[in-house]
Amino acid sequence: MKRTKVKDLLASTQPMSDVTAKGWVRTFRNNQFIALNDGSTIHNIQCVVDFENTPEETLKRITTGAAVSVVGDLVESQGAGQKFEIQVKTLEILGDSDAEKFPMQPKKHSLEFLRDNAHLRVRTNAFGAIMRVRSVLAAAVHQYFQEQGFVYVNTPIITGADAEGAGEMFQVSALDMNNPPRNEDGTINYKEDFFGHQTNLTVSGQLEGEAFAMALGQIYTFGPTFRAENSNTSRHLAEFWMIEPEVAFNDLHDNMDLAEDFIRYVIKYTVDKCQDDLKFLEGRLIDEEKSKPQDQRSEMNLLDKLNFVLENNFKRVSYTEAIDILRDSTPNKKKKFQYVINEWGADLQSEHERFLVEKHFKSPVIVYDYPANIKSFYMRLNEDGKTVGAMDILFPGIGEIVGGSQREERYDVLVEKMRKIGIDEKELWWYLDTRRFGTAVHSGFGLGFERLVLFVTGMTNIRDVIPFPRTPGNAEF
Amino acid sequence: MKRTKVKDLLASTQPMSDVTAKGWVRTFRNNQFIALNDGSTIHNIQCVVDFENTPEETLKRITTGAAVSVVGDLVESQGAGQKFEIQVKTLEILGDSDAEKFPMQPKKHSLEFLRDNAHLRVRTNAFGAIMRVRSVLAAAVHQYFQEQGFVYVNTPIITGADAEGAGEMFQVSALDMNNPPRNEDGTINYKEDFFGHQTNLTVSGQLEGEAFAMALGQIYTFGPTFRAENSNTSRHLAEFWMIEPEVAFNDLHDNMDLAEDFIRYVIKYTVDKCQDDLKFLEGRLIDEEKSKPQDQRSEMNLLDKLNFVLENNFKRVSYTEAIDILRDSTPNKKKKFQYVINEWGADLQSEHERFLVEKHFKSPVIVYDYPANIKSFYMRLNEDGKTVGAMDILFPGIGEIVGGSQREERYDVLVEKMRKIGIDEKELWWYLDTRRFGTAVHSGFGLGFERLVLFVTGMTNIRDVIPFPRTPGNAEF
């Protein structure tokens, strides 16, 4: 008989006879009460086993982690905490789980231990919730852009180009590296490699995205990007998913409007659809913070924090204004910042971004019009000749969640900037073509998807919001 | 003033004054009529320039490919072929396009030429249409699975595992390959590499997807996968996007039902939303086939073919039945097949698949229960001991579009198969864990997204349905 999902059983409005449920045992109490979960919801359904008429041998196999199939009647529950339960008529053990060996015991495990068991951690309440929320957030991304008429573009993963003009990249090759073909000077002869030249994993789809925006008007990417930076932090992954919209005819302020509207939409969509999971994660966060001193705890609970973002505009402040605020701030005057802000032109460090967001504005902040020399070559030079039309969105607890800009659409200005920093025009001939033929004002941004998932789930380590994290020394699974 | 998209202007129900449109000039006729496109639709809007009051200098700059902004009144058109046009009041050239240098001339270009200009080909009608259709198909994929309660899972791109137990893979490394650290025996010391061991680009997210299905119940992936096979064909890419759903408690027949329902849903969704683009592509195909002999032309027009798939069940036939049909077929008896089918156990070649689909059944076909020794280790051994619960979906003109199976959920059977073909159990310890703890019947499949786009757009070369194709010798852009 077809199984009914636990989510649908729990949402039933009336009792039903002879339902089939299949899932995994979370707990088994009093030789009678199975808490059964099938991943469709964070909630378990209670299955009441007729233990007097069930062989002892079977009862022993109802252990945490075991897969079981039950057939029975869905009846109103006498117990607290659930409306319905299943009075089990027949029970079948589909797959055993040796209680002594199963790593996911019904107790609290450390996040580190769970990371080492990324294939099983998703069977816990917290990681089931995180992965469902992540999935709904991803759906919201597509929904938003599709509704607005954006075209989803899969920019290449293997590439010869390097959008940032720098950045440590992973190399991709099909050569036998222990015995590669060589040039006369002893270097590897990449002409013999699969693509006929050296290739890397993409760090951004922006440049290709720009080319497509210059034809389709509004596009977005949503795919994996890579950084071979040896950053062993709670905010960095070597492989992460990035969303990069690009819009023809949008200037920097249109770009900020789009980013803000987009973030608000996807959070609202997810809050609406994931109430149960988010409530669970909110409770988890409260528990976790109990061990922290009062002043290090979050000022708002998770759902309040998300609603705050929905209801309040992000503060917009130019880099120049931000520098003034920081220079006059108490931690700057008292030299509490590791990097004291003395003058215009300084790069903003994480401590400064946090001060602006968490102490000064107490709100997400958009900083725009940065000094040209601390930003990328493709950003549009402003009329002042010293700033570019860049914007970063900073979030509490997360830091930079969006980096975007109006792009330099003027061929001559772009070429001059490329020459200055030594980017070969021949390498980017096709990118320059977009400025040679029908160039126009355009803007876009990149949003690190995992940082958004961090914010929405209230988790604090980026390794806990992606199924199988890739970090220095770790590509298991 | 905010621009209005061409799509919205053309969909207007009434005249409007002072609208702004921005886009690229497709053609400029009689010094008066601009066909303007902004990528929002395949249709251009006609902008009528008041050439008597426009400087000659400006008129000269209205060339194919130039970006322009026009302000004017949207009025009913006197000309044929459009309901509305813009009577231009002011026109601004945003970006010039030197008519002699712009590669996308208003004429027919070869597909080969366009591939070499993948950054600009999207400015043609055909590639604009293909990319919009591709985007809507991708949206349909997410919509289908999300509606059904599947969880979207981003399985890792960089991996140590190899789902196929074979397959040529791209290697990923952050080492300086011209001067790598070496072991005493002279081989490269990958312990010094970024991840501490050798890594590759994934060929499939299936194994990780299975682990997640064993917790979340129903999952799907949709991400890039890679093959370093030197296949210079119209059906293969080195980098392509794959969709891989995996469902706990589904057997092989549930799996076929899911695949068929899914394919039909996404095609219907796209046919409904992309009428204009598909009609254009249908016309393109008819034009293209005019140069072919009658018997090589498609039997059905594009939209008829898509509707046929929507209205007819896929034929399901066991491998054993398929072999009987092929053995008794005229091309087999007359030895017209390159590989004559003599006995049960033969692998089906493309010519056999095409015969079944295009000649015998004249319908999409699902072949299931293949001989175990021509299929992968993870497929479930049937009771007969010689076939596995595999299924391939074959499409006219495309060949295999889906490959799936019920997975071997029995620990002992799986381990024995792995040993037989020499897969290290230690490598896949985590995969085996899914069979050690709460194993259950489960099934899934992989669908090559570009093959689906090929089918829906009527294109014949897979390089023409992905933005920037990666093939042997080609990773430009």
From TrEMBL, chains A, B:
Domain Aminoacyl-transfer RNA synthetases class-II family profile intervals: 131-467
PROSITE patterns from the UniProt entry: AA_TRNA_LIGASE_II
Predominant cellular place of this UniProt entry's protein: cytoplasm
Alphabetical list of CDD domains matching this protein: AsxRS_core, EcAsnRS_like_N
Family annotation (SUPFAM superfamilies): Class II aaRS and biotin synthetases, Nucleic acid-binding proteins
Pfam families assigned to the protein according to its UniProt record, in alphabetical order: tRNA-synt_2, tRNA_anti-codon
GO molecular function: asparagine-tRNA ligase activity; ATP binding; nucleic acid binding
GO cellular component: cytoplasm
InterPro entries named in the record: Aa-tRNA-synt_II, aa-tRNA-synth_II, aa-tRNA-synth_II/BPL/LPL, Asn-tRNA-ligase, Asp/Asn-tRNA-synth_IIb, NA-bd_OB-fold, NA-bd_OB_tRNA
Keyword field: Aminoacyl-tRNA synthetase, ATP-binding, Cytoplasm, Ligase, Nucleotide-binding, Protein biosynthesis
Domain of life: Bacteria
Catalysed reactions listed for this entry: tRNA(Asn) + L-asparagine + ATP = L-asparaginyl-tRNA(Asn) + AMP + diphosphate + H(+)
Entry EC number(s): 6.1.1.22
Family membership: Belongs to the class-II aminoacyl-tRNA synthetase family.
PANTHER family in the cross-refs: ASPARAGINE--TRNA LIGASE, MITOCHONDRIAL-RELATED, ASPARTYL/LYSYL-TRNA SYNTHETASE
Oligomeric and partner information: Homodimer.
NCBIfam families (alphabetical): asnS (TIGR00457), PRK03932.1 (NF003037)
Protein name per UniProt: Asparagine--tRNA ligase
Record organism: Flavobacterium caeni
UniProt gene name: asnS
